[in-house]
Amino acid sequence: MEYTAAQSGFRQQPNMRLRNSSVDGPDGSQLFDDTSASGPGAQGAYRSQQAGPQAAGLPGQSFLSDPMSNLAMVYGSSLASQGREMVDKNLDRFIPISKLKYYFAVDTVYVGKKLGILVFPYMHESWEVCYQQDIPVAPRFDVNAPDLYIPTMGFITYILVAGLALGTQNRFSPELLGVQASSALVWLIMEVLVVLLSLYLVTVNTDLTTIDLLAFSGYKYVGMIVGVVAGLLFGKTAYYLSLLWCCAAIFVFMIRTLRLKLLSEAAAEGKLVRGARNQLRMYLTMSIAAAQPIFMYWLTYHLIR
Fold first, then answer.
1. How far apart (Å, rounded) are the C-alpha atoms in residues 55 and 66?
2. CB neighbours of residue 77 within 10 Å
3. Which residues contact 153 (CB under 8 A, 6 or more apart)?
4. Residues 218, 155 contacting (CB under 8 angstroms)
5. Residue 135: φ, ψ to 5°
6. Radius of gyration of the chain from Cα atoms?
7. Confidence (pLDDT) at 267
8. In the structure, what pLDDT confidence band is assigned to residue 189 with cuts at 50, 70 and 90?
9. Given a cut of 60, is residue 237 above it in pLDDT?
10. Distance (Å, rounded) from C-alpha 215 to C-alpha 217?
11. pLDDT tens digit sequence for 78-123
């Protein structure tokens, strides 16, 4: 009986092919080309192909090495810097960015004390603004200095509280909230413009700026927020009582603050000074202070029902 290699249990030796041999097909033709015999020459050609782009260099490198391109880059950067300076100069002409930084230089202590004065100004004694080399000190160092942080946050909080009040009455809508915000902003701008026109007509020489008037006019939002929140929590009676208190407080605050800015030195000290111009200044001061409670009631009475 004849046994094959597989049946006898012995492993058959595989057919070994030489390195340089080629595989032939049934008809004797070569199926695959042996590329292993190419030797170092082919490898060197392959390496030269890889090193070719690196040796040639990137297009950006040749561009940067060009003197004309360097000159163009320097000229472009100079034009960009000049344009930035021109934009900053024209922007500062219409919007004094450097001055706005002064009105937002506040801290937590200043905000707490200022809110206390706005709600209860009767115990505050000194109302004069401190100066350092004819320049008013930052608000965080002087509680009497005007700021824009409290008016800005007060305006935003008033809009949020108004939306809350409208929501509790099932009257909330984005359009109605937008009307509320725009009307409050328009009334504020109109108030400042009227005060500026009145100061021009009365010919008052004062260091009050437009931003100062905007800050003083924006302090009334604190009392408006207190009144609306009290009305939401405790009803309409609490709204009227708290709003009445805040109206009296803002009236006293505006009188004591603006009299140092608008009246003459003698009248600001409490001395009786007769004269048509001083009387006009006194009436103007009282009118500005009396307008604050009117706006406070006008912008909040429809939020409490």
1. 18
2. 10
3. none
4. yes
5. -125, 125
6. 41
7. 52
8. very high
9. yes
10. 5
11. 777 776 666 555 555 555 667 788 899 999 999 999 999 999 999 9
The whole-angstrom separation of Cα 262 and Cα 283 is 10
Separation between Cα atoms, residue 91 and residue 138, nearest integer Å: 23
CA distance 253 to 288: 11
The tokens for 304 are 């409490």
Pair 180, 173: CB distance under 8 Å:
no
Measure the CA–CA gap between 139 and 27, rounded to whole angstroms: 101
Q: What angle do CA 27, 29, 30 make, to 5 degrees?
A: 140
Q: What local confidence, expressed as pLDDT, does residue 46 receive?
A: 47
Return the bridge partners of 136, or none. 131
Residue burial 51-66, b: 16+ Cβ < 10 Å; e: rest = eeeeeeeeeeeeeeee
Q: What is the pTM of this model?
A: 0.69
Q: The tokens of 32 are what?
A: 């695959």
Please give, one letter per residue, the 3-state secondary structure of 93-155.
Answer: HHCCHHHHHHHCCCCHHHHHHHHHHHHCCCCCCCCCCCEECCEECCHHHCCCCCCCHHHHHHH
3-class DSSP assignment, residue 24: strand
Q: Is 235 helix (H, G, I), strand (E, B) or coil?
A: coil
- Report the DSSP beta bridge partners of residue 291: none
Structure tokens at 77: 């950067």
Token pair recorded at residue 134: 């004819």
Closest CA to 290 of 225, 148, 194: 194
Residue 67 pLDDT > 80: no
Copy the structure tokens of residue 164. Answer: 């809350």
For residue 219, report the phi and psi dihedrals to the nearest 5 degrees. -70, -20
